[in-house]
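Not sure how to ask, but would you mind making up any protein sequence you like and the C-alpha cells describing how it folds?
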Amino acid sequence: MSLTTIEFRHLHLAPGLRLLDVGCGEGRHAISAWLGYPVETIGVDRNAADLATARSRAADFAAGSPATCLHWLEGDALALPFPDATFDRVICAEVLEHVPDWERVVREIHRVLKPGGLLAISVPRFVPEWICWRLAEDYHTVPGGHIRIFRTGELRRSVERHGFTTLRRHWAHALHVPYWWLRCLFWSRGADYWPVRQYHRLLVWDLMHKPRLTRTLERLLNPVLGKSVVLYFVHQPGAVGS
C-alpha cells in the first residue's frame, strides 16, 4: 500500500472501533488501516474519480481481505453524512490546506467523533511549503491546489478551540521535500524532466525496499525538514467554538 503520513500506533486501533478517513482521496490511509487493524473503516471524499481509484486499489487486496469492513462514500467534509458521535477515530490527512472553510471541517469532525475519541490531522509544514509557493506559483494556483500555509501553533490552537485537546505531534516525509522543491523549480518542464524523474524513482525505490539507511536518515531529518506535520487530539465533549 502507498505511503502513509499518520502513524496508526498513536490512534490505538482496537477490535470493534469505527474509523473515518475524511477526504480520503485515493484511499492510502483508509486501505492501510483496513488491512492492518481490526477496525471498521469508512473513507469519505467529494471526488468521485478518487473514490473510484480507492475502490479499485482495495479490490486488489480482496482475496486476502480481513474480516473487518471497508466502505467508500461520496460526501462533503463540510457536512459529513453521519449522525453525531458515530466514530471512535477520525483521520484528516493533507485535506485542510485545500478547504476555504477549514474550521467548519473541524467542527464537523468534532460532531461525528465520540467523546474521548481520537483525531489525527496532517498538513504541509510551513517552511517547506512556503518555499514551494515561492518556486512555482502554479503549485498552489492550479484547481484543487493548496490555498493556505498553516503554522503549526496556529493550527493546534484553532483545533483546540473547537473542542479538542492536543496529545502529541510529529513530522513526516523529509525525503519528499527535495522532490517537491525540484518539481516546483522546474515546474514548466513537467514531472518527466530528468532530475525530477530521477528523484521520484529514488522515492519509489525507497518505498518498496525500505532500506535501513534511508529510514534512519528520514527519521533524523523529519524534525528539521519533514514535509508534513501530524497532530493528534482527543475529543472533549461540550460546546464547540464558533
Q: What stands out?
A: The mean pLDDT is 93. The radius of gyration is 18 Å. The chain has nine helices and seven strands.
